[in-house]
Protein: Response regulator transcription factor
Amino acid sequence: MLNIILIEDDKDLNELISLRLGQENIKIYSYFDFFDLETFLDTNEIDLIIMDRNLPSGDSVEMIKHLRKKGYMEPVIFLSAKTLQKDILEGFEQGCDDYICKPFDFNELLFRIKAVTKRNKTPKEQISYQDFTLYIEERKLTYKTNTFENLSTLDVELLKCFFNHKNQLLSRQFLSEQVWKNDTTSDKTINTAILRLKQKIPQIKENIISVRSVGYKLC
Structure:
């Protein structure tokens, strides 16, 4: 079953999409405006975000730009009455995976949902390090008899980067490029993300060491 966040301020359209997708055995988390997406994504496994381009609180492009910078890589489909080419290109440039112009046919929306989630589906894969095993698709980590589930996309990307480069000193610039997919992530953002990861998984705390003014190393 797919888990999808829908953010659409048109009440009738929101209810219609929720109803139709529910009939397709899709679980919908429905909202009418921006909310604390980061916290929600940290605690729930989400396959797709569908959001209106223009919401009461502002342009959704800025929200997606912020999420991508923070390392949240869940696929996004924009629904929008902004149909000019420059608006569509802006949406893709800032990180959306598809852009559907209003009005649209529901069957088209369903087809695009299936296409986006299929191509963004992470192949089944697992990476091991000492007694830790990271299950990429399931977004979980096991350590001996302990299991940590519902890891955020950022948690998984950080762990994957460390596990793939164990015993190597990773600069913050490298982490920014590999995990956040840009070269502008601030040191504070990176430090905070790693601190939260250590708090969430205490067993790995001593393995990830900080090298002053340089970066981090998994050893």
The chain has a mean pLDDT of 92.
